[in-house]
């Protein structure tokens, strides 16, 4: 049994694996501390509450302080080190485009690993929709061309409201509507949705121009369902476990492990 943990900028996701298959999964929103979210892992798992995992694989894009909180919890709970994924220049046939791979998020790298392994030889635009919306272009299943980052709906809403005095606008994840808004709430929320939709469509079209029209559009992340409801976007394959799959695959590969630098456990 293996436990995989993905610490994003606003949610902690986890999955329990047995013989290469996910048998339990969940996610929890956290703020500055992981304590409640980590406690929910053991409380919410009938498997983990009875058995110690063989390995704990993790990736964290939210900073070393949260990684340290995870380290301490896993050590206290099971006396195990956390084994972290880091973005590398290469994984098997997959080559990262970044001059400095450490600047390419480990969650994005995990997603690329999963797509490369599941669809060998195929081109894809891999979209991870979380606190930010990232686009990574993968050519022929092996060559990462780079990508783009958009702010999410929630990020844009926070930025707009923080710079607007004397206007109280509520956060809404409503669908795009055709009628013209007649309230400030509606104007802000619909304006942001239309802006985000336009950006997604434009970047998907850019991916088509670079990779050809037979590419796959693969979508994952906590905001994926909202994007799937946008009109006029290209067909996308929703793969909620994509990052977990890449984390599991990457950390299980023999010969792909290096010693950690500054954090406990091994690192890929």
Keywords:
7 helices; single chain; 268 residues; five-stranded mixed beta sheet; globular; alpha/beta
Secondary-structure element pattern, one letter each: EEEHEHEEEHEEEHHEHEHEE
Tell me the fraction of residues in β-strands, as a range. 25-35%
Helix proportion range: 25-40%
Dominant shape? globular
- End-to-end separation in angstroms reads 19 Å
Radius of gyration: 19 Å
Provide the spatial order of strands within the biggest beta sheet.
3-2-1-4-5
Mean pLDDT: 89
Tally of contiguous helical segments: 7
Give me the count of strands.
14
Residue windows where pLDDT falls under 50 for at least 5 positions: 254-265
Overview of the structural elements:
The chain has 7 helices and 14 strands. With 268 residues, it is of the alpha/beta class. Strands 3-2-1-4-5 form a 5-stranded mixed β-sheet, sandwiched between helices. A hairpin with a 6-residue loop joins β13 and β14. The model is unreliable at 254-265 (pLDDT under 50).
């Amino acid at each position: 049994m293996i436990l995989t943990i993905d610490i994003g900028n606003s949610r902690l996701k986890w999955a329990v694996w047995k013989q290469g298959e996910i048998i339990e999964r969940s996610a929890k929103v956290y703020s500055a501390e992981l304590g409640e979210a980590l406690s929910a892992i053991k409380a919410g798992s009938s498997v983990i509450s009875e058995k110690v995992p063989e390995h704990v694989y993790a990736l964290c894009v939210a900073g070393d302080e949260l990684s340290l909180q995870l380290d301490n919890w896993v050590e206290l709970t099971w006396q195990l080190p956390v084994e972290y994924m880091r973005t590398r220049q290469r994984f098997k046939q997959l080559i990262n485009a970044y001059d400095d791979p450490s600047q390419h998020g480990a969650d994005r790298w995990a997603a690329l690993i999963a797509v490369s392994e599941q669809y060998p030889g195929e081109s894809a635009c891999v979209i991870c929709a979380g606190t930010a919306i990232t686009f990574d272009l993968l050519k022929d299943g092996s060559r990462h061309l780079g990508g783009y980052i958009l702010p999410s709906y929630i990020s844009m809403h926070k930025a707009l409201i923080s710079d607007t005095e004397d206007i109280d606008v509520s956060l809404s994840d409503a669908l795009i509507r055709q009628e013209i808004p007649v309230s400030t709430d509606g104007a802000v929320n619909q304006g942001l949705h239309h802006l985000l939709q336009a950006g997604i469509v434009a970047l998907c079209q850019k991916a088509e121009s670079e990779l050809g029209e037979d590419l796959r559009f693969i979508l994952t992340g906590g905001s994926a369902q909202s994007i799937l409801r946008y009109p006029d976007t290209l067909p996308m394959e929703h793969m909620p476990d994509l990052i977990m799959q890449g984390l599991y695959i990457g950390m299980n590969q023999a010969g792909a492990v290096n010693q950690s630098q500054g954090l406990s456990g091994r690192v890929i």
